[in-house]
Write a structure and sequence with these properties.
The protein is an alpha/beta fold. The protein is built from 14 helices and 13 strands.
């Protein structure tokens, strides 16, 4: 039996792939404790998993930076206390902002503990300089890089950038994709033709500053009702929400409460196309394979994505469906969406990826044998 601590300074509810990892039945027989912040916005929908002990710290998300700093420090000290008491064999932490209590524990309390890191985001070196808290945590994290058992990113390009930036050895570096659970494959629906009107959906965080929300809304309105677009986004900024509501468009519906993760497969059954919206404002986004990309595909939806998402260029697919189609979201007037949505004469190829396969190597490493 292994004692394993999983630490995420961001709420676990914001990371569907982390939820999938923690719900894997292969943790049975091991003592796994999750330390994570809890967003007040989602406090009624707290993550739970059989056999996983959850220690949560409420995140206030105050307008005052000093209060946010106190929240982060309180979380770090609380996690450190939990580590000292439970003395885990191995620690998996998520993102640089979770590194501080791991640094303290490894350096001053337990030099035998195994250190595992997974990143859902890629941070350029300059980004750490712009973000004081992340930069401070990353400064401590550099100490941990020399002691690693494992480091992973969700795609090979981000991992390549990370290893280039920080000199992490290739033999310690791994790719763990953002796949949904295998059970979602049962929700695949073969869409030989699109609905009339075509039904498009977007699920995820929403902001005009970093996404083509305004541009895609204008595109939908220009189709005169031939496309209906539903948006599910509990994590959104007020300005973007007001703009959508002020449009008063009968073909665009905004659901600010979002959708609970486990309900997504049933929800997607009513749509034809899943939309991605990122503007590509950073390396992290340009080389992104968001979990919603795989969630759309595994349920049988086509995917339309902006040309600014450079990594997805290699995923364009028209020879089989579900199709993956790139468009210039800054100039959607020229986008032939009816051609993009047509499956005429194209065979169906059901996606077979699964979180259980993606997570196998990490779980095996965390639960294996003796030593750190």
């Amino acid at each position: 039996m292994r004692k394993i601590a999983v630490i995420s300074a961001n709420p676990v509810e914001f990371y569907p792939p982390l939820r999938n990892l923690l719900r894997d039945p292969r943790w049975k027989g091991h003592r796994v404790t999750l330390y994570s912040m809890l967003s007040r916005k989602r406090s009624g929908l707290q993550f739970q998993a059989d056999g996983i002990r959850c220690v949560r710290t409420v995140q206030r998300c105050s307008r005052f930076s000093c209060l946010n700093l106190l929240d982060r420090l309180w979380f770090s000290f609380r996690v450190l206390g939990g580590l000292i008491i439970s003395r885990p064999d191995r620690i998996l932490y998520i993102e640089s902002n979770s590194a501080l209590p791991v640094y303290w524990y490894r350096r001053y309390f337990n030099r035998k503990v195994g250190i595992f890191i997974h990143y859902y985001e890629y941070a350029e070196p300059e980004q750490y300089a712009r973000e004081p808290w992340n930069g401070y945590c990353h400064g401590k994290e550099l100490y941990l890089y020399g002691l690693l058992n494992w480091c992973s990113h969700c795609n090979s390009r981000r991992l390549e950038f990370f290893c280039r930036d920080w000199g992490v050895p290739p033999e310690l570096s791994h790719v763990v994709p953002n796949y949904p659970p295998r059970e979602w494959q049962a929700h695949f629906r073969e869409r030989r033709s699109f609905s009339a009107p075509l039904k498009a959906v977007y699920i995820g965080s929403l902001s005009n500053d970093t996404m083509y929300v305004r541009e895609f809304a204008a595109f939908v309105m220009a189709q005169g009702g031939r496309i209906h677009w539903d948006i599910f986004a509990f994590n959104h900024d007020g300005k973007t929400r007001r703009e959508l509501e002020e449009l008063g468009c009968p073909w665009i519906r905004f659901f600010p409460e979002g959708v609970e993760y486990d309900r997504i497969p049933a929800l997607l059954d009513g749509y034809d196309v899943g939309i991605l919206l990122y503007r590509g404002h950073s390396m992290n986004v340009r080389y992104c394979e968001p979990n919603k990309f795989y969630e759309y595909l595994i349920c049988g939806l086509d995917v339309w994505f902006p040309s600014s998402m450079l990594l997805l260029h290699g995923y364009q697919k028209r020879g089989t469906f579900p199709c993956v189609t790139m468009a210039d979201f800054g100039e959607l007037k020229s986008f032939d969406w009816e051609c993009a949505a047509s499956h005429e004469g194209v065979p169906c190829r059901k996606p077979l990826f699964a979180a259980e396969d993606a997570n196998s190597q990490l779980i095996a490493a965390l639960t294996a044998g003796r030593g750190r």
